[in-house]
Amino acid sequence: MAEIKPLPELLINQIAAGEVVERPASALKEVLENSIDAGANNIKVQLVQGGSKLIRVTDNGAGIASDDLPLALARHTTSKINTLEDLQKIASLGFRGEALASIASVSRLSMASRKATEKHAWQVRVEDGHILPPEPAALTAGTAVEVHDLYFNVPARRKFLKTEATEFGHCEEVFKRIALSRSDIEFSLQHNAKVRSHLRAADMTQRISSVLGDEFSQAAAFVDEQAADIRLHGLVALPAYSRSTRDAQYFFINGRFVRDKLITHALREAYRDVLHHERYPAFVLFLEMNPEGVDVNVHPTKIEVRFRDSRALHQFIFHAISKGLAAPCQGSGEIEKRKVAPPSAAPSYLHQQSIPFGGVAQPSTLYQTLFETHTAPQENLTKEFPADSLDNSASALETVEDEKEIPPLGFALGQLHGIYILAQNEKGLVIVDMHAAHERIVYEKLKSGLENQAVSTQQLLIPITFQADSLEVVTVEENCGTLYNFGFDIAVLSPTALIVRAVPAILQHSDMVKLVRDVLREIREFGASQILTERRNEVLSTMACHSALRASHLLTIPEMNALLREMELTERSGHCNHGRPTWFEISVADLDKKFMRGK
Ligand code: ADP
Ligand code: MG
Description:
Blueprint lengths: L8 H12 L3 H14 L4 E7 L5 E6 L9 H5 L10 H4 L11 H7 L2 E7 L6 E7 L2 E2 L3 E3 L4 E7 L6 H4 L5 H18 L4 E6 L2 E6 L4 H9 L1 H5 L1 E8 L2 E8 L11 E5 L2 E2 L3 H12 L10 E6 L5 E2 L10 E2 L2 H17 L29 E2 L2 E2 L3 H7 L6 H7 L8 H10 L8 E6 L3 E5 L3 E6 H18 L5 E11 L2 H9 L1 H7 L2 E6 L2 E8 L7 H15 L6 H15 L9 H13 L13 E5 H7 L5
Parallel strand pairs: 1-8, 12-14
Antiparallel strand pairs: 1-2, 2-7, 3-4, 3-7, 4-5, 4-6, 8-9, 10-11, 11-14, 12-13, 15-16, 17-18, 19-20, 20-21, 21-25, 22-24, 23-24
Bound molecules: adenosine-5'-diphosphate and magnesium ion.
The site of adenosine-5'-diphosphate has 23 residues, from helix 2 and helix 5.
């Protein structure tokens, strides 16, 4: 073994650089964060060759006094904290005092700065680990940092740098994160002397649109929740915008971009109900909390954090996001707040319609399914709507128009190929996938029924018996209570037969035997003892699938309107249980564009 000696200063910095400066993008991140900490409201980034040749960041922040300039480049020097107490409530992005020293040890770095009160700027350079004395320089107030030839002196590292396009891509991602974190700051980005982005100060939504595109913000829901000293706000994309990668996930804690398992988990849970499991949610979210509640000093690049009360935070995020996603009838430009309030529960005009289906004066299956949970039973419905008052697809519209409000999903025009409902709303054309929409409605009803322990059940006039295998029989024997909670009354008739006496009312028109078999199979798979919410919802989802309208089921106009109104009242109705959208909108303006009107 060699003798033990202290490491030379330069090598110490180079070791630190190994952690903090992985590639040009990480150096860019550090330098940009310094500009933000300096209170700049205008920050320019110029890159050459993906940042490996040059990273130049100019800001109009507070600047550094000439005497302090050499200190800024030294290791473990910072203006941001003094004591352990400060460390426990970090309000700035930087605090470790090692970024500039590390970057300077693996590049040719220079920094010019001028405080507003000084006559001219001063510049310092680092050469071979030595900080040269400041020289006068030209610069208006603020700071300009130049990082030339990153890793010129560490060939092993340089070899790991990827193509110019890849390194630029990483820099651009860092730029996006920083730009999203502070919409009040003006940013610009140049690469090889070409302007790639120029973002003026804006509000949060505008900035998100400029950085991530209009499609994102138009397919997103607002979140803004506050509890004690925590606030979560931002935009969460509705499932239709979901991605096959994690590329549009931006979460900021007190302005700092973080990747955190707990947060990711809370978000995934919140999306579980609306998002296909192979898709990733997209979001830009800002969590503001007391800095004492989060430890940012756990990772050299501070991308990971630790929370003091992680359980409560998980709950809070989960609920805030679920709420944002659940708001009925979002999407398709919902951000521009609709002025039409959705009708309150069971709108009165719905009860004035009836459904002449195939000439028979009897409400159809759909109608019963949708309304039996909050209207009269079938016999009464038939009494309420005698045959001679049945001609009213038009009167339904009149009644509504009297109210002078076009509901968000508009009024039905007709049905396309037995699959889609076409409707007209204020903006233009609404197209609804009737099966998917109905499935979601039934699912949400089952869910809230179960949550309130009030699944409305329907006793069957003639109980159904069927041959069952021994596993099915055992499942019924062992899970009577669970089945009962789900709205079923199933009993063992013999070792090889089951009898179904009651089912959830909303499912009474499905194929009973198939329904019961599917439910038994699901319950068997996880065992009643551990009915976690998520698995419970899977059972409900299976149940909903059984009842949902099949394609080619012909609907009358009032039935379609009934479905539209029900969608408006249903949480998460914008997507079916599997995360597919249930409807979308084509505005008249879009159509005009397609037909080149007004050109
Ligand atoms: P840290 O940010 O952790 O304090 P750095 O090495 O990144 O450490 O920066 C060291 C110090 O240099 C900062 O604390 C700050 O005082 C000063 N500094 C760096 N960049 C700027 C800038 N753009 N404007 C003003 N001061 C700066
Ligand atoms: Mg810093």
